Amino acid sequence: GGWLLLQNCHLGLEFLGELMDAIATTDSMNEGFRTWITTEAHPGFPINLLQTSIKFTNEPPQGVKAGLKRTYAALTQDHLEVSNMPQWKPLLYAVAFLHTTVQERRKFGPLGWNIPYEFNQADFTASVQFVQNHLDDMDVKRGVDWSCVRYMLGEVQYGGRVTDDLDKALLSTYARVWFGEHMFSDNFCFYKDYVIPRGKTVEDYLQYIEQLPVIDTPQVFGLHPNADITYQTNLANETLSTIVSIQPKDSSTGGGETREAVVQRLADEMLEKLPPDYNPYEVKAQLQKMGAFQPINIFLRQEIDRMQHVISRVRTTLTDLKLAIDGKL
Protein backbone atom coordinates (compact mmCIF):
# COMPACT_ATOMS: atom_id res chain seq x y z
CA GLY A 1 0.00 0.00 0.00
CA GLY A 2 2.98 2.36 -0.12
CA TRP A 3 3.94 4.85 -2.81
CA LEU A 4 6.97 4.41 -5.07
CA LEU A 5 8.73 7.53 -6.46
CA LEU A 6 11.14 7.13 -9.40
CA GLN A 7 12.85 10.36 -10.44
CA ASN A 8 14.58 11.34 -13.72
CA CYS A 9 13.47 8.15 -15.46
CA HIS A 10 14.62 9.47 -18.84
CA LEU A 11 18.13 8.53 -17.61
CA GLY A 12 17.16 4.88 -17.11
CA LEU A 13 14.82 3.93 -19.93
CA GLU A 14 15.88 0.26 -19.89
CA PHE A 15 14.58 -0.17 -16.34
CA LEU A 16 11.15 1.16 -17.31
CA GLY A 17 10.56 -1.96 -19.40
CA GLU A 18 11.23 -4.10 -16.35
CA LEU A 19 8.93 -1.87 -14.29
CA MET A 20 6.11 -2.27 -16.82
CA ASP A 21 6.52 -6.06 -16.82
CA ALA A 22 6.54 -6.16 -13.01
CA ILE A 23 3.32 -4.15 -12.77
CA ALA A 24 1.58 -6.06 -15.59
CA THR A 25 2.44 -9.54 -14.27
CA THR A 26 1.62 -8.90 -10.62
CA ASP A 27 -1.24 -11.17 -9.52
CA SER A 28 -2.61 -8.90 -6.78
CA MET A 29 -2.00 -5.24 -6.01
CA ASN A 30 -2.96 -3.17 -3.01
CA GLU A 31 -5.58 -0.50 -3.73
CA GLY A 32 -3.45 2.12 -2.00
CA PHE A 33 -0.32 1.47 -4.08
CA ARG A 34 0.85 4.24 -6.44
CA THR A 35 3.89 4.63 -8.66
CA TRP A 36 5.06 8.19 -9.37
CA ILE A 37 7.51 8.75 -12.22
CA THR A 38 9.30 12.01 -13.04
CA THR A 39 10.88 12.37 -16.46
CA GLU A 40 11.72 14.80 -19.21
CA ALA A 41 10.03 14.39 -22.58
CA HIS A 42 11.98 11.66 -24.37
CA PRO A 43 11.23 9.87 -27.67
CA GLY A 44 12.52 6.58 -26.22
CA PHE A 45 10.07 6.53 -23.30
CA PRO A 46 8.00 3.28 -23.43
CA ILE A 47 4.77 4.22 -25.14
CA ASN A 48 2.70 1.51 -23.41
CA LEU A 49 3.73 2.80 -19.99
CA LEU A 50 2.92 6.36 -21.09
CA GLN A 51 -0.53 5.39 -22.35
CA THR A 52 -1.51 3.59 -19.14
CA SER A 53 -0.37 6.48 -16.93
CA ILE A 54 -2.04 9.68 -15.79
CA LYS A 55 0.15 12.53 -17.07
CA PHE A 56 0.99 15.76 -15.25
CA THR A 57 3.13 18.51 -16.73
CA ASN A 58 4.73 21.33 -14.78
CA GLU A 59 5.79 24.22 -17.00
CA PRO A 60 6.64 27.83 -16.16
CA PRO A 61 3.64 30.17 -16.54
CA GLN A 62 3.49 32.46 -19.55
CA GLY A 63 4.03 36.17 -19.00
CA VAL A 64 5.60 38.41 -16.36
CA LYS A 65 2.34 38.67 -14.42
CA ALA A 66 1.87 34.90 -14.18
CA GLY A 67 5.54 34.30 -13.36
CA LEU A 68 5.67 36.86 -10.56
CA LYS A 69 2.32 35.70 -9.23
CA ARG A 70 3.56 32.13 -9.02
CA THR A 71 6.77 33.21 -7.29
CA TYR A 72 5.07 35.37 -4.66
CA ALA A 73 2.28 32.86 -4.10
CA ALA A 74 4.97 30.46 -2.85
CA LEU A 75 6.41 33.07 -0.44
CA THR A 76 5.23 33.66 3.10
CA GLN A 77 5.30 36.70 5.31
CA ASP A 78 8.30 35.19 7.09
CA HIS A 79 10.26 35.41 3.82
CA LEU A 80 9.58 39.14 3.60
CA GLU A 81 10.56 39.73 7.22
CA VAL A 82 13.63 37.50 7.28
CA SER A 83 15.82 40.63 7.10
CA ASN A 84 15.39 44.06 8.67
CA MET A 85 17.48 45.78 5.99
CA PRO A 86 15.44 48.24 3.85
CA GLN A 87 17.11 46.86 0.71
CA TRP A 88 15.70 43.35 1.27
CA LYS A 89 12.16 43.63 -0.14
CA PRO A 90 13.14 45.58 -3.31
CA LEU A 91 16.02 43.17 -3.95
CA LEU A 92 13.73 40.17 -3.50
CA TYR A 93 11.27 41.59 -6.05
CA ALA A 94 14.10 42.44 -8.47
CA VAL A 95 15.46 38.88 -8.30
CA ALA A 96 11.93 37.55 -8.89
CA PHE A 97 11.57 39.84 -11.93
CA LEU A 98 14.96 38.68 -13.26
CA HIS A 99 13.93 35.06 -12.75
CA THR A 100 10.73 35.60 -14.71
CA THR A 101 12.55 37.47 -17.48
CA VAL A 102 15.21 34.81 -18.12
CA GLN A 103 12.47 32.18 -18.33
CA GLU A 104 10.24 34.24 -20.62
CA ARG A 105 13.03 34.95 -23.09
CA ARG A 106 13.19 31.24 -23.91
CA LYS A 107 9.90 31.39 -25.80
CA PHE A 108 11.47 33.73 -28.36
CA GLY A 109 13.95 31.03 -29.39
CA PRO A 110 17.34 32.21 -30.68
CA LEU A 111 16.17 35.82 -30.34
CA GLY A 112 15.85 35.31 -26.59
CA TRP A 113 18.84 33.05 -25.91
CA ASN A 114 21.36 31.69 -28.38
CA ILE A 115 21.14 28.41 -26.46
CA PRO A 116 17.95 27.40 -24.56
CA TYR A 117 18.80 27.08 -20.85
CA GLU A 118 16.76 25.26 -18.23
CA PHE A 119 16.47 27.97 -15.60
CA ASN A 120 14.36 26.68 -12.70
CA GLN A 121 13.18 27.42 -9.18
CA ALA A 122 16.48 26.29 -7.69
CA ASP A 123 18.25 29.22 -9.38
CA PHE A 124 15.80 31.66 -7.80
CA THR A 125 16.08 30.05 -4.37
CA ALA A 126 19.88 30.12 -4.45
CA SER A 127 19.90 33.76 -5.59
CA VAL A 128 17.53 34.82 -2.82
CA GLN A 129 19.61 32.97 -0.24
CA PHE A 130 22.75 34.73 -1.47
CA VAL A 131 21.09 38.16 -1.26
CA GLN A 132 19.89 37.40 2.25
CA ASN A 133 23.33 36.27 3.40
CA HIS A 134 24.97 39.28 1.79
CA LEU A 135 22.64 41.70 3.59
CA ASP A 136 23.14 39.89 6.90
CA ASP A 137 26.93 40.21 6.61
CA MET A 138 26.86 43.72 5.15
CA ASP A 139 28.63 46.64 6.78
CA VAL A 140 25.91 49.26 7.17
CA LYS A 141 28.37 52.12 6.60
CA ARG A 142 29.71 50.71 3.35
CA GLY A 143 26.34 49.52 2.05
CA VAL A 144 25.68 46.84 -0.52
CA ASP A 145 28.63 45.61 -2.56
CA TRP A 146 26.92 45.89 -5.94
CA SER A 147 29.85 44.51 -7.94
CA CYS A 148 29.58 41.34 -5.84
CA VAL A 149 25.80 41.13 -6.24
CA ARG A 150 25.98 41.64 -10.00
CA TYR A 151 28.73 39.07 -10.38
CA MET A 152 26.93 36.45 -8.30
CA LEU A 153 23.62 36.88 -10.12
CA GLY A 154 24.93 37.39 -13.66
CA GLU A 155 27.94 35.08 -13.59
CA VAL A 156 27.28 32.44 -10.91
CA GLN A 157 23.66 31.85 -9.92
CA TYR A 158 22.07 32.27 -13.36
CA GLY A 159 25.25 32.70 -15.38
CA GLY A 160 26.54 29.35 -14.16
CA ARG A 161 24.18 27.64 -16.61
CA VAL A 162 25.14 29.89 -19.51
CA THR A 163 27.78 28.71 -21.98
CA ASP A 164 27.45 31.24 -24.81
CA ASP A 165 29.54 34.41 -24.51
CA LEU A 166 26.81 36.69 -25.86
CA ASP A 167 24.27 35.18 -23.49
CA LYS A 168 26.66 35.84 -20.61
CA ALA A 169 26.99 39.44 -21.75
CA LEU A 170 23.19 39.71 -21.80
CA LEU A 171 22.87 38.43 -18.23
CA SER A 172 25.63 40.75 -17.06
CA THR A 173 23.77 43.66 -18.69
CA TYR A 174 20.57 42.79 -16.84
CA ALA A 175 22.50 42.66 -13.56
CA ARG A 176 24.24 46.00 -14.27
CA VAL A 177 21.10 47.89 -15.34
CA TRP A 178 18.67 46.54 -12.75
CA PHE A 179 20.84 46.13 -9.63
CA GLY A 180 22.40 49.19 -8.01
CA GLU A 181 21.62 52.05 -5.69
CA HIS A 182 19.42 53.54 -8.42
CA MET A 183 16.89 50.71 -7.98
CA PHE A 184 15.74 52.26 -4.67
CA SER A 185 14.79 55.59 -6.26
CA ASP A 186 11.15 56.45 -6.97
CA ASN A 187 11.70 56.85 -10.72
CA PHE A 188 13.30 53.43 -11.23
CA CYS A 189 11.44 50.99 -13.46
CA PHE A 190 12.33 47.80 -15.31
CA TYR A 191 10.23 49.07 -18.20
CA LYS A 192 7.34 51.49 -18.50
CA ASP A 193 4.73 50.66 -15.81
CA TYR A 194 6.93 47.81 -14.46
CA VAL A 195 8.25 49.20 -11.19
CA ILE A 196 9.27 47.83 -7.78
CA PRO A 197 6.25 48.04 -5.44
CA ARG A 198 6.71 49.34 -1.91
CA GLY A 199 4.63 46.71 -0.13
CA LYS A 200 4.86 45.41 3.41
CA THR A 201 3.00 42.10 3.08
CA VAL A 202 2.80 39.35 0.50
CA GLU A 203 -0.79 40.42 -0.21
CA ASP A 204 0.44 43.93 -1.11
CA TYR A 205 2.80 42.50 -3.71
CA LEU A 206 0.17 40.12 -5.08
CA GLN A 207 -2.29 43.01 -5.45
CA TYR A 208 0.28 45.02 -7.40
CA ILE A 209 1.18 42.01 -9.60
CA GLU A 210 -2.54 41.53 -10.35
CA GLN A 211 -2.55 44.98 -11.99
CA LEU A 212 0.21 44.10 -14.48
CA PRO A 213 -0.73 43.47 -18.14
CA VAL A 214 -1.65 39.91 -19.03
CA ILE A 215 0.18 40.15 -22.37
CA ASP A 216 3.66 41.67 -22.23
CA THR A 217 5.38 43.60 -24.98
CA PRO A 218 8.78 42.11 -25.95
CA GLN A 219 10.37 45.41 -24.94
CA VAL A 220 9.87 44.41 -21.29
CA PHE A 221 12.57 41.78 -21.87
CA GLY A 222 14.79 44.11 -23.89
CA LEU A 223 13.64 42.76 -27.26
CA HIS A 224 12.43 44.55 -30.38
CA PRO A 225 8.62 44.51 -30.94
CA ASN A 226 9.18 42.42 -34.09
CA ALA A 227 10.33 39.57 -31.83
CA ASP A 228 6.69 38.96 -30.96
CA ILE A 229 5.86 38.52 -34.65
CA THR A 230 8.53 35.84 -34.94
CA TYR A 231 7.30 34.15 -31.77
CA GLN A 232 3.66 34.12 -32.89
CA THR A 233 4.64 32.81 -36.34
CA ASN A 234 6.73 30.00 -34.89
CA LEU A 235 3.97 29.13 -32.42
CA ALA A 236 1.38 28.94 -35.20
CA ASN A 237 3.67 26.78 -37.36
CA GLU A 238 4.38 24.46 -34.43
CA THR A 239 0.67 24.13 -33.66
CA LEU A 240 -0.20 23.37 -37.29
CA SER A 241 2.67 20.87 -37.54
CA THR A 242 1.38 19.10 -34.44
CA ILE A 243 -2.14 18.95 -35.89
CA VAL A 244 -0.84 17.50 -39.15
CA SER A 245 1.37 14.97 -37.36
CA ILE A 246 -1.55 13.47 -35.40
CA GLN A 247 -3.80 13.13 -38.45
CA PRO A 248 -4.54 9.49 -39.38
CA LYS A 249 -2.14 8.20 -41.99
CA ASP A 250 -3.14 6.19 -45.07
CA SER A 251 -3.47 2.50 -44.37
CA SER A 252 -2.23 -0.06 -46.87
CA THR A 253 -4.80 -2.59 -45.61
CA GLY A 254 -8.48 -2.40 -44.84
CA GLY A 255 -11.43 -1.16 -46.83
CA GLY A 256 -11.88 2.25 -45.21
CA GLU A 257 -11.69 5.49 -47.15
CA THR A 258 -8.28 7.09 -47.38
CA ARG A 259 -7.76 10.65 -46.22
CA GLU A 260 -7.56 11.87 -49.82
CA ALA A 261 -10.80 10.08 -50.75
CA VAL A 262 -12.64 11.71 -47.84
CA VAL A 263 -11.37 15.16 -48.84
CA GLN A 264 -12.28 14.54 -52.50
CA ARG A 265 -15.81 13.47 -51.54
CA LEU A 266 -16.34 16.48 -49.27
CA ALA A 267 -15.01 18.85 -51.94
CA ASP A 268 -17.46 17.42 -54.50
CA GLU A 269 -20.36 17.81 -52.05
CA MET A 270 -19.42 21.44 -51.31
CA LEU A 271 -19.10 22.27 -55.00
CA GLU A 272 -22.58 20.86 -55.64
CA LYS A 273 -24.07 23.01 -52.86
CA LEU A 274 -22.18 26.13 -53.91
CA PRO A 275 -24.51 28.64 -55.63
CA PRO A 276 -23.58 30.01 -59.06
CA ASP A 277 -21.91 33.38 -59.44
CA TYR A 278 -24.13 36.44 -59.40
CA ASN A 279 -24.93 37.91 -62.82
CA PRO A 280 -23.71 41.52 -62.49
CA TYR A 281 -26.15 42.76 -65.16
CA GLU A 282 -29.15 41.19 -63.43
CA VAL A 283 -28.01 42.57 -60.07
CA LYS A 284 -27.63 46.05 -61.54
CA ALA A 285 -31.04 45.89 -63.21
CA GLN A 286 -32.81 44.74 -60.05
CA LEU A 287 -31.13 47.43 -57.95
CA GLN A 288 -32.11 50.14 -60.43
CA LYS A 289 -35.73 49.02 -60.16
CA MET A 290 -35.57 49.31 -56.36
CA GLY A 291 -33.64 52.57 -56.42
CA ALA A 292 -29.90 52.11 -56.80
CA PHE A 293 -28.93 55.13 -54.69
CA GLN A 294 -31.04 54.38 -51.66
CA PRO A 295 -28.81 53.64 -48.62
CA ILE A 296 -30.21 50.12 -48.07
CA ASN A 297 -29.62 49.22 -51.73
CA ILE A 298 -26.07 50.61 -51.69
CA PHE A 299 -25.41 48.44 -48.65
CA LEU A 300 -27.00 45.44 -50.42
CA ARG A 301 -24.74 45.93 -53.45
CA GLN A 302 -21.66 45.97 -51.20
CA GLU A 303 -22.77 42.76 -49.51
CA ILE A 304 -23.41 41.09 -52.87
CA ASP A 305 -19.91 42.04 -54.04
CA ARG A 306 -18.40 40.55 -50.89
CA MET A 307 -20.45 37.36 -51.16
CA GLN A 308 -19.43 37.03 -54.80
CA HIS A 309 -15.79 37.24 -53.72
CA VAL A 310 -16.34 34.50 -51.12
CA ILE A 311 -18.12 32.20 -53.57
CA SER A 312 -15.38 32.64 -56.18
CA ARG A 313 -12.62 32.02 -53.62
CA VAL A 314 -14.30 28.86 -52.29
CA ARG A 315 -14.90 27.47 -55.78
CA THR A 316 -11.27 28.14 -56.82
CA THR A 317 -9.88 26.62 -53.61
CA LEU A 318 -11.98 23.45 -53.87
CA THR A 319 -11.13 23.03 -57.56
CA ASP A 320 -7.40 23.45 -56.89
CA LEU A 321 -7.64 21.00 -53.98
CA LYS A 322 -9.18 18.33 -56.22
CA LEU A 323 -6.50 18.91 -58.85
CA ALA A 324 -3.79 18.65 -56.18
CA ILE A 325 -5.17 15.31 -54.93
CA ASP A 326 -5.17 14.01 -58.52
CA GLY A 327 -1.64 15.28 -59.03
CA LYS A 328 -2.66 17.64 -61.85
CA LEU A 329 -2.09 20.99 -60.14
From TrEMBL:
GO molecular function, one term: dynein light intermediate chain binding
Organism superkingdom: Eukaryota
UniProt domain Dynein heavy chain AAA lid: residue ranges: 88-227
BP terms from Gene Ontology: microtubule-based movement
Domain Dynein heavy chain C-terminal: 234-328
Start and end residues of each Dynein heavy chain region D6 P-loop domain: 1-57
A GO-annotated cellular component: dynein complex
Protein name: DYH5 protein
Organism of derivation: Atlantisia rogersi
Gene: Dnah5_0
